Amino acid sequence: MSNGSLYINIENNIATVQFFHQASNSFPAELLERLANAFNELHKNNEVKVIVLKSEKDTTFCAGASFDELVAITNLTQGKQFFLGFANVINAMRNCSKIIIGRIQGKAVGGGVGLAAACDYCFATEQAAIKLSELSIGIGPFVIEPAVTRKIGIAAFAELTLDATSWKNAYWAKEKGLYAKVFETINELDVEVDNFVLKLSKYNPEALFELKKVLWKGTENWNVLLEERAEISGKLVLSEFTKNALQKFKK
């Protein structure tokens, strides 16, 4: 359980990918690797037409990468590898031939915002506020930036990043394009997600695949780009500023 859990259920051509970690659904490296592998496998599964990405519990969708693993980084190789975790997941979602629907039932921070942005379409509740807090500890959301900017634009990304200690509510995220719809309750959210993916599952899979390619046009260089961004973050996490900030945060 220290590495969290990941479950995949396939029913009626719909795959549900559900993750959980006791630390606010954050991701240790092993869980990120399992998530990337899940999307890579579903990409090849002809039984699947659409994917739902969700997390367990009611309060937090995803708190980003594991803080414990972040503070344990001692060299550039470890740093780059740590930040490649979300890079690999985003690229797996981008390269997946199936439409991915995000069910964002609660708050998303850092990499959690990146996950939502890498979905092709997102539904959320009013509790699904977002925050990119990386600058406040001396690094930055460099790996997830391409995915987030692709969804909400550079001006909104700048606002979200530079105002690193403030939450943006779910309606702000909807206005900027991260969420398609926002609901008052999780029950309402789930009804809409179920109805929506059921409709998608009845569409021509070839048409859905071609649409997926259109939606991600212009991202063909992301394998290289996100690796470069992971190296930037890997260097910054070793800086004296960041080490001090992490120790203060840990206390």
Structure description:
This protein is an alpha/beta fold and 251 residues long. The protein has eleven helices and nine strands. It has one domain: 2-enoyl-CoA Hydratase, Chain A, domain 1 (Alpha-Beta Complex), CATH 3.90.226.10. The strands form two sheets. A six-stranded mixed sheet has the order 1-2-3-5-7-9, sandwiched between helices.
Name the shape in a single word.
Answer: globular
The CATH superfamily title? 2-enoyl-CoA Hydratase, Chain A, domain 1
Annotation field: number of helices: 11
Instruction: State the helical fraction.
Output: 40-55%
Reading the helices and strands in chain order gives: EEHEEHHEEHEEHHHEHHHH
Distance between the termini: 24 Å
Please identify the oligomeric state. single chain
The tally of structural domains comes to 1
Q: Tell me the strand order in the biggest sheet.
A: 1-2-3-5-7-9
By CATH, the topology is: 2-enoyl-CoA Hydratase, Chain A, domain 1
Unreliable residue runs: none
Annotation, overall tally of beta strands:
9
The top-level CATH class is Alpha Beta
Structural class: alpha/beta
What's the rounded overall pLDDT mean?
Answer: 96
Rg, rounded, reads 17 Å
Major β-sheet profile: 6 strands, mixed
In short:
The protein is 50% helix and 17% strand.
Which secondary structure elements does this structure contain, and how are they paired or packed?
Layout: E1 5-11, E2 14-20, H1 29-44, E3 50-55, E4 60-62, H2 67-71, H3 76-95, E5 99-104, E6 107-109, H4 111-118, E7 121-125, E8 130-131, H5 145-152, H6 154-162, H7 170-176, E9 181-183, H8 186-201, H9 205-215, H10 222-236, H11 240-250
Parallel strand pairs: 2-3, 3-5, 4-6, 5-7, 6-8, 7-9
Antiparallel strand pairs: 1-2
